Amino acid sequence: MKPFVWATLAVLILPLAALADDPPRPVVTEIVAGDSAPDREIAGTIASQVETALSFQTLGRLRTRLVGTGDSVTTGEELAQLDQVSLQQDVDAATAALASAQVQKSTADTAYDRASALQQRGSLPQAQLDAAEQSRASAASSVAQAQATLAAANDALSFSVLRAPSDGVIIATMAEAGDVVSAGTPVMRMVDTTRREVLVDLPESYAAALQTGQQFRISIRTEGVAPVTGSLRLIEPVSDASLRFRRAHLALPEDAPTAYRVGMIANVALEGAGSALLTLPTSAVIAGPTPAVWRVSTNGAGTRTVTRTDVSLGETLQSTAAEDRVVIAGGLNAGDEIVVRGVNSLTDGQTVGPSTTIVSSAGERP
Questions:
Q1: Which interval of the chain is the signal sequence (predicted)?
Q2: Is 3 within a domain?
C-alpha cells in the first residue's frame, strides 16, 4: 500500500509544481499619455450662418441684374428686375375688366330696382323680378372676380422687383439679362452678414472636450481690428472619414466689426489648451454598472499586479481606421499603465508578467 500512496502523491504534486513554475501571464498595456501642450491658435474661416437662394415669385424675362458676385447689399436694396411691359399690360387689362364689371353691376342694380317697383304695383310678374335679381347677383360676382384678378396682376407687377431680405453679400449669380426665369428659379445666392460664424476643423479628441456655449477668443490679422469673443454654436456630429476631424461652428457676436468679413481667415484661441485629454481603447474598459479598467502597479520587489479601478467615461471617439477610443473623464492620471487586451480574464490582485506597452495618442483638451 505504501508504494501506491507515494505514487499517487507524486502524480498530484508534479502538476502543482509545474504550475507554480509557470511564469505570470504577459499582458498588453498602454501608458495613458497626458502631456500638456502650450496654448495655441487654430485657423478658421468666417462664414454666414444663413445662405439664401433668391428668386422671383412670378414668371418673366430678366430685364436687368443690378449686383454681381461679391457685392455687398443692404436690406430692401433692389437686386434685379423683370421686364414689366407684359406685367403692366396684365394690370391694365385687369383694370379695364374691373371697370366693365362695375358698369354691368350698376346696370343690373338699376334694372332690379325698376323691376321691384313695377312688381310692387302689380305690373310685373314675380318671375321677371327673380330674373332681375339673378342678373344683379351675377354682376356682383363678376365685380369680385375682376377685383381679384386685378390684385393678382398688381402682385405680379410688384414681384417683378427682387430685393435683398437682409444685409449680406452676393456669392453667386445664375441668370443674366434676357433670360426667361420661372417663379421660384434661383437667380442669385447671398449670405446674411448679420449672422456670422467661424468654421474650425478640430481633431476628434479636441471636439470631444468642447461644450455648447463655450467661449473663444477670435481675431483677424487686420491692423486696428480688436479681437472678439465668440461662442460654440454646434459641432457637426459626423467627422471626416480620412482625417478624423470634426467641424465646429463658433458664432460671432452681432456687434462684431464689419472687418470680420465672410470668407476671411480668423484665428481662434482655444482656452485651456494645455490640459490633457485622456483616452483609452474601448477594449480596455470592463463593462458593467460601474465602468472600470485594470491598472498595473509594481511593488518594491518588482512584482507586477493588476488592480480594478473604477473610471468615469466621456464621449466615444469614432474611428474608421483603428479601434474606437473613449474619453476617460475621471479615475486615471497621466502615466498610468492600463491593460487593453483580455480584460475579462483577469482578477483583482492577479500577478502579471511582462507587457507589450504602447503610449496612447491622447489629445489635448481645448
A1: 1-20
A2: no
* Residue-wise pLDDT tens digits, 151-179: 888 887 888 899 999 999 999 999 999 99
Q: First CA to last CA across the chain, in angstroms? A: 78
Q: How far is CA 346 from CA 18, 21, 181, 197, 355, in A?
A: 21, 19, 73, 50, 14
Helix (H) or strand (E) holding 219: strand 215-219
**What is the C-alpha separation between 152 and 91, in angstroms, rounded?**
9
Domains in the chain, number: 4
pLDDT, mean of residues 295-322? 81
**pTM, two decimal places:** 0.53
**What domain range includes position 257?**
42-48+192-270
DSSP SS3 for 300:
coil
Q: What would the mean pLDDT of 92-102 be, rounded to a whole number? A: 91
Show the cell assigned to 334.
Answer: 497621466
Q: Does residue 72 sit in the same domain as residue 172?
A: yes
Q: What is the CATH classification number for the domain harbouring 232?
A: 2.40.30.170
CA angle 207, 208, 211 (to 5 degrees): 80
